[in-house]
Design goal:
heterodimer; A: 590 residues; alpha/beta; FAD/NAD(P)-binding domain; Flavocytochrome C3, Chain A, domain 1; 3 domains; 16 helices; globular; B: 236 residues; alpha+beta; five-stranded mixed β-sheet; 7 strands
Chain lengths: 590, 236
């Protein structure tokens, strides 16, 4: 075997918000860093984030990081680790101001400070009333942020490997991470990128579901690579269904629409959220709003000829506010729903949006297995589980997560590289050969399963058996079905065997990653016999001891799914913050 | 919209097996939910997995799926199928080397973008808090910062076709003005120096193809006009 090897101090896989923020730390520290991305950096899915990035700047009204922390713990339904949550909320104002200094074109208040809008679950004074905490660039915050971070990396001379797909993680006999095997998409050449420190910033895997706000590229590549390399995946049963995807198209409509005054209505024109969340109403947490919507639809109060969606109404807002604060939403509504929201409400339906779980890390971005860091391995952003989002993420905390943990993991890598031996150790060959065998199997496969058939079967199974509401029997059946789909994936076949920019091969390799995520999700969800945050099941009854079906006595713990034998292990939630008192368990209501 | 049959003619070229590019005809059955051109291409790829194109967000914000559709550049994911004359002719963006099928080599495009120093330059020490900017000054960036780097504009511009190595092109110049217009940027003079050249800026002859094709409805010609005004004022 002769695979060429390229050597670096650090290799970063993924060039979305987290990868770019980490790359900036490493490049500015003068370390030799390679950033690999399947797509040109500004095409990463961070670009699609709309509403804002949270930070208790207090530009419009009093705010405090401790209130932000409280909201995040409550939003997580107490599954988030309170040390990581404190770290994120305290760092928020710093990283957002830094982003402004990098050139981010935030909207502005009359005094010239950064404009902030209300968002779901963000409250002042420990849950009292909505607060303006989401720092926004119109409704294109993700786009503006991703471009600003890319631009800053151009200034820092970061070395990008654009349209390279990482195939597998390389670990030595001790389990230390040595880098990745990667394929140049244009030529199909395979290289090893060997480095002292490796960061996964590969984003989420929303494409395991049939209906998703996620881009085509969100195929859980980091999760698949980690799982194959023996790293467990944490809390994969927790998926956020965003309340407002465009009905039929799945395209995202930001919660910022409700932050600016938008209202959800059922077929009777009723503002139904007043019944489900009397205090926060339309700005309750996403899991709460999504369930309310599905309940309305299931009880026959949906809209349209099939009564299969509800309406998001902003026709009462000043058209100038819509044009200045929500121009992208107006564009999306016109293009994907045939509706100008100035004149008519937008048809919306809960749509798979965000993966709360991922590769287990601490707040420094170090990957943690068996309570110890995996030497040389880091993860940040949606692929990672720090865990700050727990069982349900608050809107705008995802962009914040990218900035805070992209930066902290970059700093951890710098510290590690400084103390690591100057010369890289000899490369372990086992994982490299395993990776090459995967590519070779695809090249040789005949009489197998079509990629599209296996992918469609997986997506339909996840959608039907693991959605907004989950049912004991359906989950058990779902596990059996997804293991059948796994067998199909083992024989997927492609007709196109060209070595030049072979997108059929890429889709096949992506499916091999997706199926790992689908298994982890279904098996973890089947096992967790309580309701918490985004994971709600029919057999978890609402009792005084278990309000909303949450069972703290048995289930206040993180799931760890291991690919080997589909084993589940658990670890405790970190309830102790870094400097403040624990935010004590409480029944969650908005 | 209902189930319907749509005819396509698609540019195909795989350098490994094709001596030269050719157009291939396809017919595809579409469901009522298939509204955009990208929906149809994804369906076609199920039948013929060798058809190659880039795509990602499928909502017009990542800029991956720019292509030439019935003679005009646009994004497949926001183009309505039913507004297009059939057979729908799909070709790669013009003027850039073709890697395979609808995938072009965008090196030259990004090289020009990078050449304008696409980042805020401000060497004064950063304050503890955000740099202040009035809402009116921030408004100057509207119509500029929203660019998605899809290259529809530059690859529709005859001046860019003739001199892709020397003329910055509409996308790069729009970005150049985005930083000139930013009150936080202190390098306006340096930026104008960088463009003061017979080719880099002045090859724009206001043909306005860029404005016509921009999927984000931005106006590079207007931005270029503003840079030219600043050049003139600077001399005066």
């Amino acid at each position: 075997m002769s695979v060429p090897v390229r050597k670096f101090d650090a290799v970063i896989v993924g060039a979305g918000g987290a990868g770019l923020r980490a790359a900036l730390q490493l490049s500015e520290a003068g370390l030799k860093t390679a950033v690999l991305s399947k797509v040109f950096p500004t095409r990463s899915h961070t670009v699609a984030a709309q509403g804002g990035v949270s930070a208790s700047l207090g530009n419009s009204e009093p705010d405090h990081w401790h209130w932000h922390m409280y909201d995040t713990v409550k939003g997580s339904d107490w599954l988030g680790d309170q040390d990581a949550i404190e770290f994120m909320c305290r760092e928020a104002p710093n990283v957002v101001v830094e982003l402004e200094h990098f050139g981010m074109p935030f909207d502005r208040n009359a005094d010239g400070s950064i404009y902030q809008r209300p968002f779901g679950g963000h409250m002042s004074n420990f849950g009292e009333k909505p607060v303006r905490r989401a720092c926004a660039a119109a409704d294109r915050t993700g786009h503006a942020m991703l471009h600003a971070l890319y631009q800053r990396n151009v200034r820092a001379n970061t070395q990008f490997f654009v349209e390279w797909m990482a195939l597998d993680l390389v670990r030595d006999e001790q389990g230390n991470v040595q880098g990745v095997v990667a394929m140049e998409m244009e030529t199909s050449e395979v290289y090893v990128f060997q480095a002292k420190a490796t960061l996964f910033a590969t984003g989420g895997a929303g494409r395991i579901f049939a209906s998703s706000t996620n881009a085509f590229i969100n195929t859980g590549d980091g999760l698949g690579m980690a799982a194959r390399a023996g790293i467990p995946l944490e809390d994969m049963e927790f998926w956020q269904f965003h309340p407002t995807g465009v009905a039929g198209a799945g395209v995202l409509i930001t919660e910022g629409v409700r932050g600016e005054g938008g209202i959800l209505r059922n077929s009777a024109g009723e503002r139904f959220m007043e019944r489900y969340a009397p205090n926060a109403k339309d700005l309750a947490s996403r899991d709460v709003v999504s369930r309310a919507m599905v309940t309305e639809i299931n009880e026959g109060r949906g809209c349209g000829p099939n009564k299969d969606h509800v309406l998001l109404d902003i026709t009462h807002l000043d058209p100038e506010v819509i044009k200045s604060k929500l121009p992208g939403i107006r564009e999306i509504s016109i293009k994907f729903a045939n509706v100008d929201p100035i004149k008519a409400p937008i048809p919306v339906v809960p749509t798979c949006h965000y993966q709360m779980g991922g590769i287990p890390t601490n707040y420094k971005g170090e990957v943690i297995v068996d309570e110890k860091p995996v030497t040389g391995f880091y993860a940040a952003g949606e692929v990672a589980c720090a865990s700050v989002h727990g069982a349900n993420r608050l809107g705008t905390n995802s962009l914040l997560d990218l900035l805070v943990f992209g930066k902290s993991s970059g700093n951890s890598m710098i510290d590690f590289i400084k103390t690591a031996p100057k010369d890289l150790p000899p490369l372990a060959i086992g994982d490299v050969e395993r990776s090459l065998a995967r590519v070779e199997r695809l090249n040789q496969q005949s009489n197998g399963t079509q990629v599209n058939d296996a992918r469609a079967a997986m997506q339909a199974t996840m959608q039907k058996h693991c959605g907004v509401f989950r049912f004991k029997d359906m989950l058990a059946e779902g596990v059996a079905k997804i293991l059948e789909v796994e067998k199909m994936v083992k024989t997927i076949e492609i007709a196109d065997k060209s070595r030049t920019f072979n997108t059929a091969r890429l889709e096949a390799l992506e499916l091999e990653n997706l199926i790992e995520v689908a298994k982890a999700t279904m098996i973890s969800a089947d096992a967790r016999t309580e309701s918490r945050g985004a994971h709600v099941r029919d057999d978890a009854e609402d009792t005084p001891e278990r309000p909303n079906g949450r069972d703290d006595q048995n289930w206040l713990k993180h799931t760890l799914w291991h690919r080997d034998g589909n084993q589940l292990k658990y670890k405790p939630v970190t309830m102790k913050p870094l400097s403040v008192d624990t935010i004590a368990l409480k029944t969650r209501s908005y | 919209m209902t189930t319907r049959t749509v005819k396509f003619s698609i540019y195909r070229f795989d350098p490994e097996k094709d001596a030269k590019p050719y157009m291939k005809d396809y017919t595809v059955e579409l469901d009522s939910t298939d509204r955009k051109l990208l929906d149809a291409l994804v369906k076609l790829k199920v039948v013929d997995d060798a058809i190659s194109f880039r795509r990602s967000c499928r909502e017009g914000v990542c800029g991956s799926d720019a292509m030439n559709i019935n003679g005009k550049n646009g994004l497949a994911c926001v183009t309505d199928i039913d507004t297009l004359k059939q057979p729908i002719q799909i070709r790669p963006l013009p003027g850039l080397p073709v890697v395979r099928d609808l995938i072009v080599d965008m090196t030259q495009f990004f090289k020009q973008y990078h050449s304008i120093k696409p980042y805020v330059i401000n060497d004064t020490p950063a304050p503890d808090r955000e740099r202040l900017q009035s809402p009116e000054d921030r408004e100057e960036l509207n119509g500029l910062y929203e660019c998605i780097l899809c290259a529809c504009c530059s690859t529709s511009c005859p001046s860019f076709w003739w001199n892709p190595d020397k003329f910055v092109g509409p996308a790069g110049l729009l970005a150049a003005y985005r930083f000139i217009a930013d009150t936080r940027d202190t390098a306006t003079n340096e930026r104008l120096d960088n463009l003061e050249d017979p080719y880099r800026l002045f090859r724009c002859h206001s043909i306005m193809n860029c404005v016509d094709v921009c999927p984000k409805e931005l106006n590079p010609t207007k931005a270029i006009g503003k840079i030219k005004d600043l050049m003139v004022k600077r001399i005066a």
